[in-house]
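Protocol step 4 of 6: structure prediction from sequence.
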Amino acid sequence: MTDFSPLQSFRRRNPGVAAALALLASTAVVAAVPEPANAQQPATATASASAAKTGHAEVNGMRLYYAVHGDLASKQTPLLVLHGAFMSGEAMAPFVTPLAASRPVITIDARGHGRTGKVGGAVSYDQMADDAVAVLASLGVARADVLGYSMGGSTAIAMAVRHPDRIGKQVIISGTASLDGWVPEVLAGIAQMTPEMFVGTPMETEYKRLSPTPDAFPDLVAAIKHIDATPFAYSDAQLRAIPGKTMVILGDADGVTFEHAIKLFKLRGGGDIGVATQGFMTAAPKARLSILPATSHIGVMAEAATIAAQVIPFLDDTTPPMPAGFF
């Protein structure tokens, strides 16, 4: 059978690397997964995004693009939404739309991504965390909750470790607190990436559509390879010390290992034996864990509505309901 799709052709030529690229959650690859009709439309196509305030913040030697959905002057705590590798803030529209209905939402295009443009050298999670906090400061936001997906999830953890006074609750979706939280085969595949492998793929096309430096895509590939080849790990003590509450979300076929996700959940206060023996909750827990069935790393993006329904009670600090008739 003839391969008419550049992405299909790429997967066929490079099956191992294609699997790793899929786990990097490109918005273009996500778009190939059956989802709600508006799930991967540009943010300007959504009701909440149509009135978004956009701009660039001059921080740490970069011009980082941001979009603000809603009123930052309202009494609700803003939510910062961080995208995954090879994505952009507007690719997070499936999360922004439902969450912006009840609170202001801010998106950022990370270094080298989306409308921010050229990556400017090697990147690290610490650096991206500092970038994000600087953008919040430029917007006059003293403290925000944060939701991060994949690369954005690790950045969210770095923000909470490095800037605990600026970050409240964290929602970590398919992200890790250390490099070894990933399935080793995924990292091995990423190490084999070359810019030439992306030629004609939706990943490259989407980058060129958004970026003010459309010819700098090879630099972004190099930066992603670097960050996924550089060991990093936030210590148990650092993770326990984060003051804000944490929600950990992943798919049951994710590239993040169960062991890592459960360890993070427990370090953040999950797995309370007292609650387990009591059988019910009388207060909102410090940590929450959600493992989505029949869901891969990319498939998580197709579950945005389900995730939002779980995240909103967490952000609102809602006590889980008691079923009727037990007491």
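Step 5 (inspection) to follow. Strands lie at 53-59, 62-69, 79-82, 105-108, 144-149, 167-173, 246-253, 287-296.
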